[in-house]
Specification:
The protein is 38% helix and 17% strand. By secondary structure, the protein is of the alpha/beta class. The protein has a single domain, classed as Protein-Tyrosine Phosphatase, Chain A, CATH 3.90.190.10. A five-stranded mixed sheet has the order 2-3-4-1-5. Helix 1 (49-63) packs across helix 2 (78-89) and helix 1 crosses helix 4 (114-131).
Length: 148
Amino acid sequence: MKNPGKFIGFILNVAEEIDVGRYGKLTGNRYNGLKYHKIPLVDGDPIPAKKMLEAIELIQRHIVAGKVLVACHYGLGRSTSIVIGYLCAAGMGYGEALNLVSSKRPGTDPMPDLKETIRKTLALYRRYRDAHSNDVGLEYGFRSGSTR
C-alpha cells in the first residue's frame, strides 16, 4: 500500500518480535506519520486478559476516526485473535466472530484458549466498569454475554 494513511487511521502491532522502526520512521507513538501502538504478544501463547482488554480499548478508541490495522508477523494468529476479541466485546458471539474473521482472513488460527481469554477479559472489564462507573470513557458498551 503506497499511502496507508489514506485508508488506515491507527496501527496496533501485537507481534513481540516485530520492530517497525526497521521498516519505517517510528517517532513516539507514530509510525510513518500514523498513530501506532505495540502490545507485545508471544506467538503461540495464550493472550493475557489484561493485554486483550488493552487492545480492545485501543481499537474502540481509534476506530471512530478511521480504519484500524491490527498486525502481527503472519496475520493469522495474534492479530485475528485480537479482532475476534474486539468483535465479542462489541456484542458478537464467539462462533460468529470467528466465522466472520475467518471469512475475511483465510488461514485464521486463533491463539490457545482464546474463548476463555475473552470471557476473562469481559469479566475484567465489568469489574473495572463497576468500580469506576462515574468515570468518563467507559461508554464502550461491552456486553456480558458475548462469548456465547
